[in-house]
Amino acid sequence: MNDTLLEVSGVSKSFDGFKAINNLSIQIAEPELRAVIGPNGAGKTTFMDIITGKTRPDSGHVVWGERNISLLGMSEADIANEGVGRKFQKPTVFEAQTVRQNLAMALKNPRGPLAVLLHRKTPSNAARIEGIAAEIGLTDSLTRIAGELSHGQKQWLEIGMLLAQEPRLLLVDEPAAGMTVEEREKTTDILKRAAKTRAVVVVEHDMEFVRRLDCKVTVLHEGSVLAEGSLDHVTSNPKVIEVYLGR
Ligand code: ADP
């Protein structure tokens, strides 16, 4: 059963009087794969900044988990400890370390005291690293130096490092940017697999990539939800065609 994990309701945020986010309401279930699309300046980055605690909204609510706690006012570190992971556009891995060492370092930094306790009861680090490597398609690259990986492989490694932190919600910013066609295909597989057991929200420009994700789509425009549903549903909406596709 899918339960609501994140409930953003009536959130607004202005910068110097300009409404970047305007009465935005979005619900994300667990598990779920969701694509958030919209033209430049639609508010996608600010949306992620608000969820992760980087930006404080002027009004509205951001409610999390079965305890219905508010993420507003919590520090970025505390929100991360709650299980919100964020993948920025550029890959950030330890270039001089192997893939295995990168994943091991991510495991060594569990996301909270509870995770440390649970850690002792869960499979060994070696088994966990191998499990994550399989999830991100890097089983054959565990001994390779991360700096020698392709752009796509570095992105997958960073996704793996985030998965090692056991997020309940993973926010991913334009993962397909700069990837080859084959890398894009593998990335959709990785994200779909990851979203079977957690919430994954993908902010993306590339419509072909969004089509491959084959998930519910939320279209943002001027800081609000313009349309929501399947990609075919939203792209047949005349308002979306006008503002997003520019026709
Ligand atoms: P997107 O990620 O969809 O391109 P953003 O969330 O980055 O959109 O931006 C939404 C709007 O808010 C844009 O018009 C942008 O210029 C403005 N904006 C975002 N952050 C700031 C900021 N820190 N100061 C001023 N304006 C900002």
TrEMBL record:
Which Gene Ontology MF annotations are present?
ATP binding; ATP hydrolysis activity
Asked if the record carries the keyword ATP-binding, the reply is yes
Extract the Pfam families matched here: ABC_tran, BCA_ABC_TP_C
Keywords attached to this Swiss-Prot or TrEMBL record, sorted alphabetically, are:
ATP-binding, Nucleotide-binding, Transport
Occurrences of domain ABC transporter (ranges) = 6-247
One Gene Ontology cellular component annotation? plasma membrane
Keyword Nucleotide-binding in the entry? The reply is: yes
Q: Under which name does UniProt file this protein?
A: Arginine transport ATP-binding protein ArtM
